Fold this sequence. Notes:
The complex is a heterodimer. Chain A is an alpha+beta fold. Chain A has helices spanning 5-41, 73-101, 113-126, 159-164, 167-182, 185-215, 222-266, 269-281, 312-318, 324-335, and strands spanning 44-49, 52-53, 59-61, 64-69, 105-106, 132-136, 143-146, 154-158. Chain B is mostly helical. Classes of the chains: A alpha+beta, B mainly alpha.
Amino acid sequence: MSDATGFIAEQRHNRRASVLILAGTFALLFIVANVVTGVFGGYTKETCSPAKVLANGYVVQPQVCTSEFRFNLVALIITIVFVGGYLFIAWFASASAALTMVQARPADGPEFAELRNLVEQMSIASGIPVPRTYVVDDPAPNAFATGRNPDHAAITVTTGLLAVMSRRELRGVLAHEMSHIRNRDIAVTTLAVLAVGAIAVIAQIGLRIGMFGGMRRGSRDNNGFALLLLLSLAIYLLAVPAGMLLKASLSRKRESLADATAVELTREPSGLRSALEKLEADTTVIAHPSAATAHLWIESPLERGRDEGMLGSFGRMMDTHPPLSERIAKLRTIEGLDPEGRGPNDPFPTAI
Amino acid sequence: MIGLIIVIAVLALLVLIVVGGFNGIVRQRNQVDNGWAQIEVQLKRRADLIPNLVETVKGYAAHESGTLEAVVQARQASVAANGPAEAAAAEGPITQALGRLFALAEAYPNLKADANFRQLQEEITSTEDRVSYARQFYNDSVTSFHNRIDTFPGVIIAKFGSFPHRELFEAAPTDRDVPKVQF
């Protein structure tokens, strides 16, 4: 249970997931790049059957040429440049982009001393360097972690979170975020998000090119355009939803795991459980909700008030977080409380 | 010829397993050392904060010398402790003494309101928590390290170097008692 090697197995699992996502994106991009270069760069292999010409010069059957796509070096280079640039963004820019997007500021000053202390405690418990700590001025209680690895990590909380949580509850929330950092969840979810985005953009481009080419009737590479159109359509209809489902299920799994790791770090499920119950009861909506950063927060900032109708189960498949009630029930079970019940909660918020 | 290749391949595999295992054990030992260093940092930090706290409390409640003396003595015992077992044994008295001191502050509204005191209280309480989280990480690392060098194949690979068992930072029996508070 408290075996430190459990975390290492988690990190390995995440690394494998990252490699799979990368390899899949690379393969898809390579195929698309081959088709595009084939259409525009003439990187096709042409095979022509000779025309049948009679001795009197009468053509019985004209020369028939079919072009087929070849895997070519230009496509490979394009793909490598594209994936390289994309990795660069994922690795170096996404954390600061997320912090800018939510307008986070560093948690300096004496009023955040308790917050910084709790962050430091959790970093000691998890054996990783102390992450930078940020605050967002927002009445909705929420928190998230960013950073590609434990050396470049940051934890951000809203002022709303500080206002409603007790010390124990805040520690539970911070332990959850620390678990994301320690298990290297952020790198893998960031990659998944960027991969889905990149695939969607490529499919869009392919669709446009294919339709444009298809309208120019009689063009020599009509086959190529048709193929591109079909491929893009297939990607759009299959790969994009599949990627989104994968991303959502991956994110949900990481959330459940971070809850479990948080209990392992704090050795008490009641703090996080009580915090999640407060989040469940809270109805304040985050001021800058964005689908791009939804997977980062401890509680999804997007999914409030969604009706549980016909689309309910599909909606749940696309959620980035397991339902709060489910997460609370799990923690209550560990505590030996009634999973459906609520409370007891810490009544008093922290001093800050 | 094929037989020779197989023998060489098996030997190479064995060497790889031993080297990998050995490096893993060294990494875990380093994690244990790092965990212990972290405990020492936090213990030192608390020891540095306590004299300030004692001075601040003296300004408001000088006649509570018994409680103050207990804190000073417990601090000295903690500073003098050598190694995980001794340091852990010194934890109980110091935690209890500090608990009594902070409980005492309830009876002195002026002391409770003192900004310096409140800051020290936050820092010391937080450092106490840090000691317990550092202890948790250290003990987990030691257990994990022991499991590695006591089970196969680690038990054999560990013979290639010197990997003695480490002391756990364990709570002394008194540490589990609830501190008695008297007004």
